[in-house]
User: Which sequence fits this backbone?
């Protein structure tokens, strides 16, 4: 039986005229109908929820084993958010950071107040949107075996999803500046190999006892055991520019988990790559995205980004084929090669018009449309400046 999938997407709420983020998440949630789509055999429904800052919203899908059902769910909740936002004079933009200047406004909760006091400027400046993919696992032991194995491939997922080149009105020189903003938090990033569920839970418990973080929810590993579901939660990605890109990302995540679980069951050792090298690989992925080079974890040396992506697809290919997801992934990656990911599309729009508000508007259109937007010319933006 195929592993189930679920997706969480965080998105910006922006003024319908100016494109600047607006603090209206509470109003939006009051106006949302929260009607889930019909998903056969699913007891857990998707929803719209608030997030850390009032200028963002989170949607999450119901778990499903079928990729096309997941696609319908992602589109449904994006559309639901768009409809609710319209009543507040705002639009929804699948951008991992705001291209335009913003003063984040933290949502009202005891937990968020603790975080704001504890982390000070880091929390006050933080406004980023990610995509978290949940893939079901059979046990904590299997889950930790998966985490130990997939850690070397997570920078490639960051590169594919990179969608945050701008920060407070400036081009950062990064394809994913969200990854740089997250590096300011104490429990972020790649992890060592754990070896067992006991070791994983011991580390998390010690992290919470340190009082540097408040609770397990603040363990912001690139991938972790989910708190409330029997899943591995892969958190490394920026929110994707389009819903179809989200589906490609989710399929790759499931392929990674399935491949890793099979290797774990056979007693294969996870790759022994130093965590510091994975930090370098993540930094490089955030810097170049799909516009330059990634680090090959086998050698630690830079290779053209699509060479590393092709290696990832080769690695999970048998699992994708078995699950019936291979065509979806190959078609989606072919479009990304031709049209670029979110970072490249954002830069291409700025090159065309010279206005960051147009970058936001393009994302608003892409988020609202059920299908891929018409491609933009990314030739001038195939590499990062600097």
Assistant:
């Amino acid at each position: 039986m195929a592993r189930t999938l679920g997706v969480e997407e965080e998105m910006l709420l922006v003024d319908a005229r100016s494109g600047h983020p607006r603090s209206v998440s509470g109003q939006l949630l009051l106006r949302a109908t929260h009607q889930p789509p019909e998903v056969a055999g699913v007891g857990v429904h998707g929803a719209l929820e608030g997030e850390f800052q009032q200028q963002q919203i989170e949607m999450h899908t119901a778990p499903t084993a079928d990729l096309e059902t997941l696609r319908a769910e992602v589109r449904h909740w994006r559309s639901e958010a768009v409809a609710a936002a319209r009543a507040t004079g705002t639009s929804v933009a699948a951008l991992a950071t705001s291209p335009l200047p913003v003063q984040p406004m933290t949502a009202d909760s005891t937990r968020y107040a603790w975080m704001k006091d504890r982390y000070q400027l880091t929390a006050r400046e933080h406004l980023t949107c990610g995509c978290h993919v949940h893939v079901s696992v059979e046990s904590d032991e299997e889950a930790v075996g998966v985490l130990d194995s997939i850690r070397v491939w997570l920078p490639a997922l960051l590169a594919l999803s990179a969608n945050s080149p701008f920060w407070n009105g400036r081009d950062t020189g990064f394809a994913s500046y969200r990854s740089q903003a997250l590096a300011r938090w104490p429990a972020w990033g790649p992890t060592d190999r754990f070896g067992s569920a006991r070791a994983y839970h011991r580390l998390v418990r010690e992290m919470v006892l340190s009082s540097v973080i408040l609770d397990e929810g603040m363990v912001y590993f690139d991938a972790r055991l989910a708190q409330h579901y029997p899943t591995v939660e892969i958190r490394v990605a920026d929110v994707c520019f389009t819903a179809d890109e989200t589906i490609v990302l989710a399929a790759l995540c499931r392929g990674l988990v399935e491949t890793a679980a099979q290797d774990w069951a056979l007693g294969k050792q996870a790759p022994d790559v130093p965590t510091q090298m994975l930090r370098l690989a993540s930094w490089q992925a955030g810097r170049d995205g799909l516009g330059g080079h990634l680090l090959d974890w086998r050698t630690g040396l830079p290779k053209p980004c699509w060479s590393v992506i092709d290696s990832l697809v080769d690695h999970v290919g048998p699992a994708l084929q078995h699950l019936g997801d291979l065509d979806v992934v190959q078609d989606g990656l072919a479009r990304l090669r031709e049209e670029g990911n979110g970072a490249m599309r954002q830069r291409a729009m700025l090159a065309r018009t010279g206005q960051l508000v147009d970058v936001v508007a393009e994302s608003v259109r892409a988020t609202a449309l059920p299908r891929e937007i018409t491609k933009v010319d990314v030739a001038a933006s195939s590499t990062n400046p600097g």
Notes: Residues 182 and 188 are 6 Å apart (CA to CA).
